[in-house]
Amino acid sequence: MNFFSRYSGAGNLFLIGDNRKGLFPLSSICNLSFQHKVDGVILLEDSSLADYKMRIFNPDGKEAEMCGNGLRCLVHFIGSFSTLRIETLAGIYTAWREGDLISVEMQPPTKITWHLSIQNQVAHFLNTGVPHTVLFPEIFPPSIEELGGKIRHDPFFAPLGTNVNFVSLLSKEKLAVRTYERGVERETLACGTGVMASALAASYLYGLASPLLISVQSGEELLFTFDSSWKKMILTGPVKQLLTLERTTRILNNY
């Protein structure tokens, strides 16, 4: 297995490393994220509950509960074509690989709240492993980062904050989603748990049925399938390995 690799999960960028020896200095997270311009750093670790454990850290250094695209990238990094069970802070997820398309079975959403009034916007909240707020504007706002940042930091969501998704209904089968990510503190090119939250909100509010194809800001697409009870849900999309790093930085040299 490679020492460290840079990955794209439908445009979500990650640096992934093998930390099964437990030697990686967590104090290096912020520097690594900045240096390699990624949306998060993922560590592969051993698990006593599943095949492997995923730990994901945002660029601000805080550990996140879960990341759908990050988990899909980790499956590619592991290199197995077998079905894998991956432990996260949000629970154990099942994932599998078919070529460069990787699927993960998502957990049911929690803490669902419809029709909130936040920053003079009608918003909807679902925790899909991490907290997500979903809006359906008539057009995307001119600055996703300005409005997204205000909602992300709104006192209603304190102290954890929220990710913010702006959704456009393109057809009965397709959505476009743009996401402001908590911890990254900007718009990212894709967000797997955000795609899930957006698809479920579109299903509930507008009657859209499974499967839904979701276009993200990178120009790539994710497929989200779900049953009527929201208990069987699968996120599928592309994964690309962009670069392998072999102790190319001072930080990694000390690891």
Characterize the structure shown.
The protein is globular and about 50 Å long. The protein has 5 helices and 17 strands. It starts with a strand and ends with a helix. An 8-stranded mixed β-barrel has the order 1-2-3-4-6-7-8-17. 18% of the residues lie in helices and 43% in strands. About 2% of the residues have low confidence. The protein has 2 domains: 118 residues, Diaminopimelate Epimerase, Chain A, domain 1; 121 residues, Diaminopimelate Epimerase, Chain A, domain 1 (Roll). It is an alpha+beta fold and 255 residues long.
- The helix/strand order is EEHEEEHEEEEEEHEEEHEEEH
User: How would a textbook summarize the main sheet?
Assistant: 8 strands, mixed, barrel
- How would the global form be characterised? globular
Average the pLDDT over all residues and give the rounded result. 94
Specify the structural class: alpha+beta
Total strand count, please? 17
Q: Quick one: CATH superfamily of the largest domain?
A: Diaminopimelate Epimerase, Chain A, domain 1
CATH topology of the largest domain: Diaminopimelate Epimerase, Chain A, domain 1
| Rg calculated over all Cα atoms | 17 Å
Helix count? 5
**Major beta sheet, strand line-up:** 1-2-3-4-6-7-8-17
End-to-end separation: 16 Å
The percent range for helix content is: 10-25%
* Total number of domains: 2
Proportion in β-strands: 35-45%
Unreliable spans: 247-251
- CATH class value of the largest domain: Alpha Beta
Q: Mind telling me which CATH architecture of the largest domain this is?
A: Roll
